[in-house]
Fold:
Amino acid sequence: MELNNLDSLKFFYPEAVLTGTILLLALLDLVVKNKQSLGTMALLGSLLSLWATSQLYGSPAGWLFHRMIILDQFSLFFKVVSLLAVLLVVWMSLACREVRDIHQGEYYTVLLTSALGMFFMASSSNLLMAYLSLELVSLTSYILTGFLPHNRRSSEAALKYLIYGGVASGTMIYGMSWIFGMTGSLDYARINEVLLRGEVNRLSLFMAFVFILAGFGYKIVFVPFHMWSPDVYQGAPTPITAFLSVGSNAAGVAILIRFFFPAVSRLEEGGNWAFISGVEWPHFLLIVSMVTMTLGNLSALNQENVKRLLAYSGIAHAGYILMGLVVLNNEGLMAMLFYIVVYLIMNLGAFLVVVIVANATGREDIEGYRGLAWRGAAIPAVCMAIFLFSLTGLPPLAGFVGKFFLFAAAIKQEFYLLALVAVINSVISLYYYARIVKTMFLDFPEPADPEVAMTPDASALLGVLTTLTVLFGIYWGPLVQYTNQSLRFFIK
Amino acid sequence: MTDNLLSYMIFFPLAGMVVVLLLPRERHELIRWASALFTVPPLLLAVWLYMNFDPADPGLQFVEKLPWIPAYNIDYFVGVDGISISMVLLTALLCFLCIFASWGIDKGVKGYFALFLLLDTGMMGVFVALDFFLFYIFWEVMLLPMYFLIGIWGGPRREYAAIKFFLYTLFGSVLMLLAILALYFTSEPHTFDMTKLIAQSDKYSTAALGFWPFDRLGWGFQHVVWMALFIGFAIKIPAFPFHTWLPDAHVEAPTAISVILAGILLKMGTYGILRVNFPMLPAATADLAYYFLAALGTWNIIYGALCAMAQKDFKKLVAYSSVSHMGYVMLGMATFTPQGISGAVLQMFNHGTITGMLFLLVGVIYDRAHHREIDGFGGLAAVMPVYTGVSALAFFASMGLPGLSGFISEVLVLLGAWQKYQVLAILGAAGVVLTAGYFLWTVQRVYLGPTNEKYRALPEINGRELFTLVPLGIIVIILGVYPHAVLDLLRASLDHLNQLVIPHLS
Structure:
């Protein structure tokens, strides 16, 4: 179906609810005295939006707003993921001392705006819309990164982020202009039509794809567009780091899949995708994937700051996620979506423990975790160990299942080298994850190390995330089913 | 009750872990007794299993199968046959005894016993799992508690030893994971069910792959998968050159964990080869295991014995003796003869009991003297006669003295080896001499000679320590006289296994 502006509105409730919450937050900020309640408002708003999203399941797929936005299972999936990310991050912010003293109203407003941008990233069906939504997410991310007042690191990170982001999106829009020049259209469906007719110069198309990958790559954080991430992750307030690591990454994957699969490839029988012959972007991404995971893991080995370490680990995980793209079939895509969900859970969990420790000690370096298990924080330490081992990919934790699907997709299409590089990388990653575990359990605290206590809301969130990490490691059937269902693209 | 026998054996310890976690932290005695209590049912069930196991049936018994993730044909599928039953018995027994060997742990008692019980579940699961996915899960579940048990409760270099163990084993298991996936996608319909994978073993291509280095080696898909699995298992055995984690892990681990490590974990490597490589990839086994595995085993025997001879640390000596003794297992199973292969599996069982005793004995002396320098003792026989008597039994069993269990299994292995590889059989027999050499030398230095004045007042071995040693000693003697108590269990399944591989031997 193809709807005009007015008819589209009734399929637009999730976005509308979110926008309403954002506006309400900005207004309430002026009158409400208890700023903590704004966080609760944001929480409620995203819950309501989640409910509205769930109501859209079952409605027909199609174009909204004159072919600007697509409504299909795939975009709904990413709406749910973005909302979960923002929901959990708001919850985490409520438990975080670092962000308690900053302007709550603006903070939550910008955070929700970023989630709104992610909605559009996942559902845009037009290069212009894709660019605008990506910029919306980027701009809000810059602001959030620099949100800590009088903090040099935070400001430096924001500036670096801005400069890298500017260059990357500039390159991307340049590539988009090539596509427009070659196909005469910004609309994905029409681009697809022209490209499949095969009248386009292969080399220039490949160049255009590489340019566009710069923009997507900087959101997903793959090599060589990863340079900003360690500084930004370290400098930003921890909940924001967590948000960028999962939300921004997921939205980047969404826009990437949407562009490279329905827009420029063709779905064949049996769930395999055929790319335009002569434009070998999968092989390009194959190399990018291997380099990304290796570089991320090797750089993480010597990090002393936990947030920085998790930034490099995030780069490595972006490499793993790309594996699903390279194999060019729906199983690979399913593995990517699955991995995004479990990565969201376990990575947010790890950052939550960083928040809990920083609340008590103000430290983010690995040394600050010395003997954590013996300092009255046995539960967060055990949970952290669970999240880190899940990130390594050890069963019976969710991360293992995620990696299992990615490896399975690679093996099925006989990408043995890729699978081998990936498993060796898993072994390398164990070393640095286990280093944190070692510091928490195997080292004993010194008398000067403070006790670490948890607030009730932090422990509740920790409980939820840990349970999910273990649960999806043991029984993941329903989640697989959900991600499989989410792989329905509206093409025409 | 008997329907879900194996599940009870797997999950009783896990329930025990939950109970232990719920107990108050300070009640050390309570935690210890609770843990002991939860290892009793698996032991009793193991005895019942032993009584009711039908040795004439080469197939699987006590099978349980439930769908777990139907979309991927993953089942909860467990069962035992002649290959696994001896290992299940060993696991149940050693876990029960090791709880008592851990009585002296007084730091983080709750965590220790909780992790120990989790380890118990993992080990039991590996030996009974018949779904490859389930097997892999249990295989990995074991790693985590082991890492913490060595890393937290170990000796001075525990951190290094723990991470080394972890990295080595994980490297092996990820290779195994790739192999599992490759088999899964080759099977039709895709399945992780080991019995079905074995049934279609002829589907895995042996035609040489077209790219370097496999075209030169003449390796096909089946050979590559075999090698990936083999490396995973060889790290666990540990076969040369993957053995270097073992001395470190053993020396640093607390006594009970050393016993588990040597007694059970090492067996998983050889068990895996017998359970997976041999029946599932018989053609590659015939090509690759013939001679290569036997030679590797012999090299392990000699190399391990020579290393053991050079050790100054008592525990390291026992650790290297394990490397040497596991060599007999590899040599035995590479013969594809009834004697050799049953000797190999019997050796797995015997090594578990004998080396378990040896590590317990080292633990006893370490608890008293707080060091393990072989040259630092002397004349202990006069001070601790009972301890010396038990030690002598274990040493002689390990050396392969007739009348004790080690003798039977080594002789069977060498009998098998003589039929196929005479040179290796001679070298393997020479290993027995080396073993006798380093053990007798150790006996001389530690127990005989003039009494070291420093240790004149060492207390004699106590009741609890004897309680952990005596059952193992009795088994060693019984199996030395009447090996059929175990051999009868194995024969049918192992003959069947041999028949799968032998047609492929050229």
